[in-house]
């Protein structure tokens, strides 16, 4: 297994708790929903309003990001996590050991909001390969009309020599960068204008313009080590109460042959991932509704 060192100097700029969850702008005051006034107002704008496409992209990226974080919390086997006593804010940890606790480590001296930011850093640390494998089918379903390309580059960062991101071209021609694992580098925005991101973050390109999903064949040999396996996807589905017959009901032919288990194993991972993602969204909406209902009841 690999040992990793998480140095505060690398990620410190991603620990600002007073940021909007959609655009990453600084909030003028502490708000419960972690959303700035501009984004909150944009969500209620009528169709065709200026900036509607960008808000759509931000919302979709945020949903995918939260799913990836939840996937990491539920299926990760991170362990052996300790603070480096000689370097404040640095942590040494090992990943990939089966049978260990799935709980994230406790960080001393963190309030709830800062802890949330630090969890995002931890859950995205060295997870680029996993995202490359998991995310293509989900992005194709979430962003139907957008053109998405993978790009690999050397970032302008003191501790990272190779990184991955996504270049999205909207229907109106605007281009943006999506970075689902950028928190480990201390970069906050999930969505950034492409030209701005390129100038500020990219030292040089390694490859660019590759079709979405191009890199999956390159990294899929690391599936077991990286933890992106069908078993872990099933763990997510179990969390949401999805029964086997719901997940594998499409494999009726294999079941009729009496080889039910083989039918399950042969089911494409993309189908399982998309199912897990949709169930995640459904349960997220349900939890938001429960919270709203509870607040409304308290006001009566």
Rg to the nearest angstrom? 20 Å
Main pleated-sheet profile: 5 strands, antiparallel
What order do the SSEs take from the amino end to the carboxyl end, as H and E? EHHHEEHHEEEEHEHHHHHHH
Roughly what is the average pLDDT, rounded to an integer? Answer: 74
| Annotation, overall tally of beta strands | 8
Features:
3-stranded antiparallel beta sheet, alpha+beta, 5-stranded antiparallel beta sheet, 300 residues, globular, 15% strand, 13 helices
Annotate the secondary structure layout.
Elements: E1 3-6, H1 8-11, H2 37-42, H3 52-75, E2 79-83, E3 91-94, H4 112-124, H5 128-142, E4 147-155, E5 163-169, E6 175-178, E7 191-193, H6 194-201, E8 202-211, H7 216-219, H8 223-226, H9 230-239, H10 244-248, H11 252-256, H12 260-266, H13 269-299
Antiparallel strand pairs: 1-3, 2-3, 4-5, 4-8, 5-6, 6-7
Helix pairs in contact: 5-13, 9-13
Region (Disordered): 248-268
Biased composition (Acidic residues): 248-263
């Amino acid at each position: 297994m690999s040992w990793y060192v998480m140095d505060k100097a690398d990620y410190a700029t991603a620990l600002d708790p007073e940021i909007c969850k959609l655009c990453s702008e600084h909030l003028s005051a502490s708000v419960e929903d972690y959303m700035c006034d501009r984004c909150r107002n944009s969500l209620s704008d009528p169709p065709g309003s200026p900036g509607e496409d960008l808000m759509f992209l931000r919302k979709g990226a945020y949903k995918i990001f939260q799913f990836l974080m939840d996937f990491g919390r539920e299926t990760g086997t991170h362990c052996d996590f300790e603070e480096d006593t000689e370097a404040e804010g640095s942590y040494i940890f090992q990943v990939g050991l089966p049978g260990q606790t799935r709980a994230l480590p406790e960080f001393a001296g963190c309030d709830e909001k800062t802890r949330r930011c630090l969890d995002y850093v931890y859950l995205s640390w060295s997870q680029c390969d996993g995202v490359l494998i998991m995310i293509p089918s989900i992005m194709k379903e979430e962003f139907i009309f957008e053109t998405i390309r993978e790009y690999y580059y050397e970032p302008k960062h003191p501790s990272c020599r190779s990184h991955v991101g996504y270049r999205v071209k909207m229907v109106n021609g605007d281009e943006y960068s999506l970075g689902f694992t950028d928190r480990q580098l201390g970069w906050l925005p999930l969505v950034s204008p492409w030209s701005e991101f390129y100038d500020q973050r990219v030292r040089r390109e390694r490859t660019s313009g590759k079709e979405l999903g191009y890199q999956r064949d390159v990294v899929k040999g690391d599936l077991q080590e990286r933890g992106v396996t069908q078993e872990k996807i099933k763990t997510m589905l179990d969390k949401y109460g999805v029964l086997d017959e719901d997940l594998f009901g499409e494999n009726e032919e294999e079941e009729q042959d009496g080889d039910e288990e083989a039918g399950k194993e042969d089911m494409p991972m993309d189908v399982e991932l998309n199912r897990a993602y949709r169930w995640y969204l459904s349960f997220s909406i349900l939890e938001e509704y429960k919270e709203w209902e509870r607040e409304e009841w308290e006001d009566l």
